[in-house]
DNA sequence: TTATATCCGACTCTATTGATCGGAGATAAA
DNA sequence: TTTATCTCCGATCAATAGAGTCGGATATAA
């Protein structure tokens, strides 16, 4: 299945929230979880990952939480997916994977890899501000 | 994870084989399974699905098997994925899904849907002959 | 009639994803 | 200095989807 995980959805929603409520300075896990109806502990891990990858900054203690480090126009969808789900792989076989019993006979590997990189390139052109803004019509013309 | 299933891989490899060995007239499950090292029963179902969807034609009884109905240039990658995996959904939420507890607050749904349709459109421009041929450089310029 | 195919549903096993739990470390405020 | 409220992090459990297996039915060339 070619599907994004819930975690990625939650990450995008959180970034959206943080950019929308910049005035709050810090947005904590609890409030984001409550507003979007996300399990708090799960969201906590996602935000920790986003912090570790440098998208947001964490502030510990009471009144603590997270703030956006980068502007949504400087974050791409591809980056967020990779931060949460790891490297994007439409094609399942990895270069030199000896556990794949098809590799030797497989003729479709390299063409599919090019399709994959095309899609990855596309995802890397989509900045988050285009996702969280209302005017999204231009998305289709991007690439 | 944005990943194609093994079933889709097997389907593409089978179509590849059938187009390559057109001289055989019929290619049976056993021989394809042996050549590509695919579990026979699993491959059988995939081929049945491809037959049901009109990509290949089945011939029952001994000396039976499958033959390509369409030319690889008339089959797109998107079509094969849909035949095997069902409708392509990068975005997990479906129009009017009441079980999703985020729908009301979710602001990212519609923009993501446009990205999805862009990718689907791209996959529908990739014909199988481009995947099974050696010259795949032009793939990147397609869309 | 027999051997070899497709056909098809039910089932098991495994991997991934989604969610929960327990507790440690940081820090602002009382 | 204590306390309440955060982030942090590993371990664990549950749900779902993917991959593969099994048993038996039907078709048909030899």
Q: Main traits of this protein?
A:
disordered C terminus, DNA-binding, mainly alpha, elongated, 2 strands, 143 residues
How much strand of chain A? 5-15%
Ends distance of chain A:
24 Å
Mean pLDDT of chain A: 86
The spatial strand order of the largest sheet of chain A comes to 1-2
Q: Main sheet of chain A?
A: 2 strands, antiparallel
Runs of chain A in which pLDDT lies below 50 for 5 or more consecutive residues are: 134-143
Q: Using DSSP, what is the number of strands of chain A?
A: 2
Oligomer: homodimer
**Secondary structure: helix percent of chain A:** 40-55%
Dominant shape of chain A: elongated
Instruction: Determine the number of helices of chain A (DSSP H or I, runs of at least 4 residues).
Output: 6
| Sheet/helix structural class of chain A | mainly alpha
């Amino acid at each position: 299945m070619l599907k994004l995980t819930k975690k990625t959805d939650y990450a995008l929603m959180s970034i959206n929230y943080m950019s929308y409520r910049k005035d709050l300075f810090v947005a904590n896990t609890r409030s984001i979880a409550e507003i979007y109806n996300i399990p708090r502990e799960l969201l906590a891990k996602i935000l920790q990952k986003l912090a570790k990858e440098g998208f947001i900054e964490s502030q510990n203690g009471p009144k603590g939480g997270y703030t956006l480090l980068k502007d949504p126009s400087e974050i791409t969808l591809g980056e967020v997916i990779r931060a949460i789900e790891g490297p994007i792989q439409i094609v399942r076989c990895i270069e030199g994977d000896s556990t794949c019993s098809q590799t030797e006979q497989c003729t479709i590997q390299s063409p599919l890899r090019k399709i994959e990189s095309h899609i990855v390139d596309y995802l890397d052109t989509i900045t988050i501000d285009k996702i969280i803004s209302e005017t999204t019509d231009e998305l289709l013309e991007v690439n």
